[in-house]
Amino acid sequence: WLEMANNKYEYVKSFEPEDELMPLTWIVVRIDGHRFHRFCEVHEFEKPNDEQALNLMNSCAKSILEEFPDIVFAYGVSDEYSFILKKTTRLCQRHSSKILSLIVSYFTSAYVMKWREFFPQKELKYPPSFDGRVICYPSTAIVRDYLAWRQVDCHINNQYNTCYWMLVKSGKSKREAQDLLKGTQTQEKNEILLQHFSINYNTLPVMFRKGSSVFRDKVEDTVDSAERGDPVEMKVVIDHSDIIEETFWDKHQYILDE
Ligand code: ATP
Ligand code: ATP
Ligand code: MG
Ligand code: MG
Ligand code: MG
After folding, report:
1. Fewest CB within a 10 Å sphere: which of 35, 60, 231, 251?
2. Contact at 8 Å (CB) between 103 and 83?
3. From CA 46, how far away is CA 104, in angstroms rounded?
4. How far apart are CA 134 and CA 66, in angstroms?
């Protein structure tokens, strides 16, 4: 009887969409906090940048790289993180919805688990959630452009937000701050910061200006271990380099090696 029932109902499986991602392409998963504008208010994040909130995001990304060896690089800013899976990965048989749901749920539960570590004095008021999407990129050059796009976005948003919140904190209404900044260029924003608030934008913490990269790197080996010829140990690190320029990639060619 059970077997007959199985035959009868199994056809429902044919309704499942095929979602295998194209082979031998870089897979990028980008997750983003759902309605974090509100989440930041409810949890009283410091504006424009709550350092602990960023450290929590970075720590979750680090856990992901430690859990999934095929994720070779991650870049995060604000409430978002991008994860790059190597071209040859067979994770989840490259099924798009499985890869996406795995990464989003792992990140989200890590975020909740680690909350206390980063906010010992703050209660988590409601369950945070993240949305996510998957994109395949056929070449390393396009992955590099993708990362550059995110880091430029980080710069533009951070510069705007820094100005905006300095104006608001100095007594301007949110409306006035918005109107003042409308249509201003990079240079003008830097001048507002310098002249009104004596802030040199380039001296703000590098994590705010450049975002965070997470990847595997050689750990500083001691002279001893080098002399013994120990194999180089790779560890997941958090870094705030410029990832648009060649310098970083010259130094870490193995990351996007095909
Ligand atoms: P959506 O669900 O569409 O993503 P959202 O409210 O999350 O909506 P985003 O465009 O993702 O909108 O913007 C995230 C918001 O969270 C921004 O207002 C950003 O300033 C804020 N934010 C994220 N991280 C931090 C942080 N570490 N410190 C302060 N504010 C933050
Ligand atoms: P995959 O990652 O492929 O899903 P899996 O180990 O999760 O691998 P499933 O086919 O999803 O494999 O099976 C879930 C396993 O968890 C089964 O072994 C099932 O017996 C066990 N399991 C799930 N819920 C319970 C439960 N409430 N009590 C006891 N065992 C459970
Ligand atoms: Mg968001
Ligand atoms: Mg966002
Ligand atoms: Mg299962």
Report:
1. 231
2. yes
3. 25
4. 20
Ligand nearest to the CA of 102: 2
The CA-atom distances, in angstroms, between 256 and each of 59, 67, 90, 188, 239 are: 22, 19, 17, 37, 16
Predicted local distance difference test score (pLDDT) of residue 219: 85
**Does ligand 1 lie within 6 Å of residue 182's CB atom?**
no
Q: Is the CB of 153 under 6 A from ligand 1?
A: no
**pLDDT tens string 46-83:** 999 999 999 999 999 999 999 999 999 999 999 999 99
| 78 Cβ closer than 6 Å to some ligand 1 atom | yes
DSSP assignment of 43-65 equals: TT--SS--HHHHHHHHHHHHHHH
Q: Which of 149, 154, 132, 141 shows the shortest CA–CA distance to 28?
A: 132
Nearest-ligand number for the alpha carbon of 111: 1
The number of the ligand 1 atom at minimal distance from the alpha carbon of 48 is 29
> Strand pairing partners for 95?
20
Any ligand 1 atom below 6 A from CB of 33? yes
Query: Which atom of ligand 1 is least distant from the CA of 161?
Result: 20
C-alpha to C-alpha distance for 144 and 138, rounded to whole angstroms: 11
- pLDDT for 57: 99
Gap from CA of 133 to ligand 4 centroid (Å): 13
User: How much is the average pLDDT of 100-110?
Assistant: 98
Helix (H) or strand (E) holding 83: strand 80-85
CA nearest neighbour of 196 among 174, 210, 179, 177: 177
Q: What is the ipTM of this complex?
A: 0.95
